[in-house]
């Protein structure tokens, strides 16, 4: 496999449109990209890219019942893929954009291969990271995403060098930028009015679950 395209982009400012376009082109072609988020680095692809999805699963050693999340540009676009109860919507308004994944019932727009056969749910992210946000906007459809945690060590990848060491042979492009935080996103599930904390990570839960 060829060496992944390495795109150097400043993280805390408007990302270079030319370099974002180059990364988006990789995603449009069905490739796998690694990019920063407001938690740790992530691996992602376009929602319809089946081969890329399989590559992410193999790269991370994921089981079939483990699901990828969707990065959406905003809450309005997220509502096409997730069904938000009043409780879920109020919570989403508190946590987005930010280092959180909100698990809600999936709509018909989410392919069945991306959801659990017994429970049709989907993880939604609206990130505050300008690079991940620009990728989602440029792609024009959800960016299927999974935390870049090295399968052999269980350690999160926080920069491009760590990504290339852990996943270099599995990806087509990597955004090279400042180091990310050390923890993955906080995962919260909402089923009707019931709120369940699945994983506490980078996003603080202080006061946000009282909706």
Describe the biggest sheet? 10 strands, mixed
The strands making up the biggest β-sheet line up spatially as 1-8-2-3-7-4-6-5-9-10
Number of domains: 1
CATH architecture call? Alpha-Beta Complex
The secondary-structure element order is: EHEEHEHHEEHEHEEE
Number of β-strand runs:
10
Q: Count helical runs.
A: 6
Strand content: 15-25%
Description:
- With 211 residues, this protein is an alpha/beta fold.
- The chain has a single domain, classed as DHBP synthase (Alpha-Beta Complex), CATH 3.90.870.10.
- 26% of the residues lie in helices and 22% in strands.
- It has 6 helices and 10 strands.
- A hairpin with a 2-residue loop joins strand 9 and strand 10.
- The longest helix has 12 residues.
- The model has no long low-confidence stretch (mean pLDDT 93).
Features:
DHBP synthase; ten-stranded mixed beta sheet; 211 residues; alpha/beta
Provide a compact summary of the structure.
This protein is of the alpha/beta class and 211 residues long.
């Amino acid at each position: 496999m060829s060496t992944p395209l390495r795109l150097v982009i400043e993280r805390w400012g408007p990302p270079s449109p030319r370099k974002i376009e180059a990364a988006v082109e990789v995603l449009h072609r069905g490739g796998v990209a690694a990019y920063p988020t407001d938690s740790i680095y992530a691996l992602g692809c376009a929602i319809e890219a089946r081969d890329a999805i399989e590559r992410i699963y193999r790269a991370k050693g994921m089981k079939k019942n483990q699901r990828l999340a969707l990065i959406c540009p905003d809450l309005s676009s997220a509502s096409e893929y997730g069904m938000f109860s009043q409780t879920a919507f109020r919570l989403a308004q508190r946590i987005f954009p930010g280092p959180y994944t909100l698990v809600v019932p999936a709509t018909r727009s989410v392919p069945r291969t991306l959801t659990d056969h017994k429970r049709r749910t989907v993880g939604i992210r609206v990130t505050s990271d300008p690079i991940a946000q620009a990728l989602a906007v440029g792609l024009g459809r959800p960016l299927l995403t999974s935390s870049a945690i090295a399968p052999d060590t269980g350690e999160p990848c926080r920069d491009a060098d760590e990504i290339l060491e852990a996943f270099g042979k599995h990806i087509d492009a990597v955004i090279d930028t400042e180091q990310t935080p050390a923890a993955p996103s906080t995962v919260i599930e909402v089923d009707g009015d019931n709120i369940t904390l699945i994983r506490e990570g980078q996003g603080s839960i202080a006061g946000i679950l009282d909706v």
